[in-house]
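Writing this down once: the sequence line spells out the residues, with the fold written below as integer tokens. I am pasting one below:
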Amino acid sequence: MDIVTELIKHIVSTQYDDLPHDVIEEEKKFIIDSLGVAIAGSLAPGCKEIVDLVKEWGGKPEATIIAYGGKIASPWAALANSTMMHALDFDDTLDESALHAHVSVLPTALAMAELRGGVTGKEFINAVVLGVDLVCRLGLATRRPLSWIRTSTCGSLGSAATAAKVLDFDYEKMLRALGIVYSQTSGNAQCLIDGGLVKRMQPAFSAQAGVVSALLAEKGITGARDILEGIYGFFNLYEGGDYNREKILTGLGKQFEGARLSIKPYPSCRMTHASIDAAIAVRKEKGLEASEIVEIVVCVSKMVYDMVGGPFAIRKSPQVDAQFSIPYTIAVGILRGDVFLKDFEEFFIRDPAVLKLAEKVKVIMDPALQERDMGIATFVVKTNQGVYEKKVSKVKGSPSNPMSMDECIEKFKKCFAYTQKPVSQTKLDEILYELANFEKIKDVKDFMDFFVEVSCV
């Protein structure tokens, strides 16, 4: 069976009325969550510089820049909005595959909906659900340890599929769009290891590429066709031929894999979250005081150990260093009882009490865990009073321990409150009403005017 053919046929033919009700309701939660973290992320290092640059580039005023306001050419809007959405590492994750899904797909959908005009909320939700489903299916099919940032590699294909769906492409045009975006697919993990700000831009490159690819396809430009299983197709070239073919097509059209996504309660790498949950739980259960702690040992999988388990060190990008550190985030959780946005500002990162406690944290690899597991952590703390242990296997925000709609709305409000120009309660209520009833929107372009009116920076 040609999996590319099956996937494209599914995306082309599926309409809003084919989506289960629970999928639609869950998708609205993810739209709320993603837009909220983009508003908060607009203040993160590098974002203003990117917005300034794309405004300099200019172009037709096609799509809105979230938080900053103003309209620019659609590829640049997708680039800027995706960067803000990912900058705080606060966006959704597919825990089973260590990727983010909406951060490439949603900014592409927003840009294309404004460009096309007349896109209803139902059409928009349908296009995003299908793009996210594709991203997740590709990610779930991978088996290898993290080397490529699959948020970017899988995200580029989901982004192009969503752009093509918004433009109502037929089979051939959608294949062209996917083939063209495959020529732009990239995103390696070295910038994560080295703490580069560009890490937060990698999904944005995919979002931009999705917009460009759909528009090129519309003009008749062609691309690769055997994009997934060809000799130099995605799974052979990027994943060394090591993938689970069955996971790509199982339940296609009946189950939508966006249901596997997690919403983050903490604005840091998802690989730190099980450890944070454990640290905060022990703090609450035992009344743990930092002054009592002699040593903390955290046992995690190989991937988690490799990516976020090293001793905490502040380099050129303190925010990135903190976002990708178990020792830092655990220290914050114990000292402050929560981990939220201000904890990743440089002033708070350099708090001597946090740095001192982070030095007492040792992360080790648990060989009994699946290599890519990031949902399990065992936390052992040695104090003057004794030794306490906590194991977390259901991370907050995951499908097995989900955040409710009320919790998502509360997170959204906190993200807005974090900005330099807090929005009035009346305006915030209007935005949340529209988001909660997104399927009733007659033109997404009109909805985006809210984000011009409430420019937050």
